[in-house]
Write a structure and sequence with these properties.
16 helices, alpha/beta, Aldehyde Dehydrogenase, Chain A, domain 1, six-stranded mixed sheet, binds adenosine-5'-diphosphate, Aldehyde Dehydrogenase, Chain A, domain 2, about 475 residues, 22 strands, seven-stranded mixed sheet
């Protein structure tokens, strides 16, 4: 037994450090935010806390008529004050939204963790700061579009229909809303049905910022509400982030309509560790790559490609590191891995992990107690995975890592590219030249060098192949919301 392996049981453990929720005000029910007003109409459904299974609020679902109201409000705002407003004035509203988000950051972080299950450490230190940063960044572009695209006479596309997923609820709303506003569009956006609450808080912020009515409209509901936005003849552009399956449905229904479309879909990112990599940093990068946000990350590094000569050492260190991860209450500041977002997602993860075992890969999970209630899953790593295994090909969207090996850079590149997806990759090596050479050969929209899951509003994000098309973030992220000549 080495000193590192000394076991103290729970005698040497963190005391609970729960973030307080007594400053949170949630209404019993939420509807929609249309034309600057809250509207509580439509079939109700519940949004729950996935860590406790308790109901947080009743949410109303928007039907086609409600979506029609929202689209008409957006059109009127486009043809009204918003459309004729000087860009420098438009920027002020976006700055104001960013400032109000910062002021209410703590409240937003707590609600994000309660509704979605992510650890408060992440919602507080990653999600919400990035939300504010995104609004600040695009506020800066609003009156500089002609410098971004010189001579191209950039104009707004019109009414943008936006549909977002549940893994980064407020951040995905920011990624959609901020560039659309900067470019002068108006918006109808739908949050995911399991995580509507921070979007409703954003509606309050938008109201407080004094944004003209109808510029941002938020409708709640599930797939049928999303489809009503997609199919409404009054939306000029659709921006969707979610599953590849739904992305394909949307692309089919838009075929021939002339509407603009951007899709940010699934991924099966390769995180490649060369034998000259700084191993301690790489282990942290692997952990961050797959266990950040319970692995509910489209760009997660869910396929670990390790050079064969260091495989055993990497796996040994990784297992040791995994055994230090704390799974549990998302509101506890010590928690590393929070709750799985829904029972449905937990079932999907469980099913794919069973498939991994049935297909012959070796599963490791550290010992850890899971809370009695709520949806939780232990951090999991599979070794002995082959490229044919489902766990090497399908997106699990959970805290599950598949380890494969390679011997040469060429083999690493071939394996990284052996995926129907092409969203992200990570490369760990001491040699800059190797890093750039390999990055150039991998077909993925975002490639991190000696780091993973780093986000910045100025950096474009998006995919190839079945991960979708179009870019969000940076100057590239303006283009989907502009007509240019
Ligand atoms: P996930 O795997 O993230 O749940 P989905 O693609 O099912 O991915 O959900 C992403 C978003 O798409 C959610 O807001 C969901 O309500 C919405 N959605 C689901 N089905 C459709 C559809 N047919 N048309 C438009 N939006 C949809």
């Amino acid at each position: 037994m080495t000193a590192r392996d000394l076991l103290f049981g729970d005698l040497w453990d963190y005391a609970p450090a729960p973030e307080s929720t007594n400053h949170i005000e949630l209404k019993a029910q939420y509807g929609h935010f249309i034309n600057g007003q809250f509207v509580e109409e439509g079939q109700p459904f519940e949004t729950i806390n996935p860590a406790t299974e308790e109901t947080l609020a009743q949410i109303h679902s928007a039907d086609e008529a409600m979506v029609d109201r929202a689209v008409k409000a957006a059109r009127a705002a486009l043809e009204g004050p918003w459309g004729s407003m000087p860009a420098s004035e438009r920027a002020k509203y976006i700055f104001r939204i960013a400032r109000l988000i910062q002021e209410r950051a703590r409240e937003l972080a707590v609600i994000e963790s309660m509704d979605g299950g992510k650890p408060i450490r992440e919602s507080r230190d990653v999600d919400i700061p990035l939300v504010a940063a995104h609004f600040f960044y695009y506020a800066g572009w609003a009156d500089k579009l002609e410098f971004a695209f010189p001579g191209a006479r950039p104009r707004p596309v019109g009414v943008a229909g936006q549909i977002i997923p549940w893994n980064f609820p407020l951040l995905m709303a920011a990624w959609k809303i901020a560039p659309a506003l900067a470019c002068g569009n108006t918006i109808v956006i739908k949050p995911a049905e399991t995580t509507p609450l921070t979007a409703m808080k954003l509606a309050e912020i938008i109201q407080d910022a004094g944004l003209p009515p109808g510029v941002v409209n938020i409708v709640n509901g599930a797939g049928a509400t999303g489809a009503a936005i997609v199919d409404h003849p009054g939306t000029d552009k659709i921006a969707f982030t979610g599953s590849t399956e739904v992305g394909k449905i949307i692309q089919r229904s838009l075929a021939g309509t002339g509407k603009r479309l951007t899709l940010e879909l699934g991924g099966k990112g390769a995180n490649i560790i060369f034998d000259d990599a700084p191993l301690d940093q790489a282990i942290e990068g692997i952990v961050n790559g797959i266990f950040f946000n319970q692995g509910h990350v489209c760009c997660a590094g869910s396929r670990l490609l390790v050079q064969e000569s260091i495989h055993d050492e990497v796996v040994r260190r990784l297992k040791h590191r995994m055994s230090t991860l704390r799974v549990g209450d998302p509101l506890d500041k010590n928690t590393d891995i929070g709750a799985i977002n829904s029972r449905e997602q937990l079932n999907k993860i469980t099913e794919l992990v069973q498939a991994g075992e049935t297909e012959g890969a070796t599963c490791f999970q550290p010992e850890c107690n899971l809370p009695g209630k709520g949806f939780f899953f232990r951090p999991t790593v599979f070794t002995g995975v082959t490229q044919a295994h489902r766990i090497a090909q399908e997106e699990i969207f959970g805290p599950v890592l598949s380890v494969l090996t390679f011997r040469t850079p060429a083999e690493a590149i071939a394996k990284a590219n052996n995926s129907e997806y092409g969203l992200s990759a990570g490369i760990w090596t001491d040699k800059g030249s190797k890093l750039f050479k390999v990055a150039g050969a991998i077909r993925a929209g975002v490639i991190w060098g000696n780091t993973y899951n780093k986000f910045d509003p100025s950096s474009p994000f998006g995919g190839y192949k079945e991960s979708g098309f179009g870019r969000e973030g940076g100057l590239h992220g303006l283009l989907p919301y502009l007509e240019v000549e």
